[in-house]
Amino acid sequence: MRHWGQRVLNFVFPSTCDGCEAALTHEDLPFFCRPCWEGIRPITGSTCSRCGIPGLHSRSESDASELTCCHTCYDSPPRYDKATALFRYEGVLAQAVQRMKYKSQTSLISPLANLLCENLQGIDHMDIVLPVPLHVTRLRKREFNQSLALAKRVAQTLHIPLSMDNLARTRKTPPQTTLEWKDRQRNVRDSFSVRRPHDFLEKKLLLVDDVLTTGATVNECARVLRAAGAESIQVLALARTIAD
Ligand SMILES: [Zn+2]
Ligand SMILES: [Zn+2]
Where are the beta strands (DSSP E) in the chain? Predict the structure, then answer.
């Protein structure tokens, strides 16, 4: 029988990789082996110039140059200027984000923030970084806001100020994950507010979230940020859910 201390340690820090079940060594990351971590796939290829969704296909060679945004954005333009998500929300990355968010594994914040901050090329000339806020009751339950943790690191990396609480979540809503896609926009409507609009007046804002799904939450944030007088709003997310 193993020493009880080892068993406690294995419970807190599992000794096998969540992704492939290989034994972990001190050179690996928390919960994941290095090959699994390095296999996290970035989103590549052509993406919508507004919402960033990949796989933008033109219907013919001739309209390829004109097609820069997807049909959804063309029909109903988002309130933000541009959204960028770096990775597909799947496999090891999805496991890591879920561990961080729902099991409060804060040791994964740093490796996840590194993934984000190593890929900030093309995001420049921003004035303020801010996270998608959590409602205070959900924050109490989860103990940390994963978007704020990521936004802090982005602000440090880009050397621009972080606004932690000017955008606030003032209405508690059911989690978006419990809802059908079509109900998500309605669910988040009027659930955010800007406490000091003057701070965002004519500023270029970089709104950070962990995972984009329909984009309904960041779109609603962008609506109130624009109403507060923001000059432009870019969204940066670690990952995006992509329907196959
Ligand atoms: Zn592995
Ligand atoms: Zn789009």
Answer: 82-88, 128-131, 167-169, 192-194, 204-212, 232-240
Place of tokens 């200027």: 81
The pLDDT tens digits for 31-41 are 999 999 999 98
Task: Kindly report the number of other CB atoms within 10 A of residue 157's CB atom.
Answer: 16
Prediction pTM value = 0.88
Q: Give the amino acid at 95.
A: Q
Which ligand does the CA of 91 lie closest to? Answer: 1
Number of the ligand closest to the Cα of 23: 1
pLDDT digits 0-9 by tens, 19-29: 999 999 888 99
Distance 185 CA to ligand 2 centre (A): 16
CATH number for the domain whose boundaries are 40-57+67-240? 3.40.50.2020
Spans of all domains in the chain: 1-39, 40-57+67-240
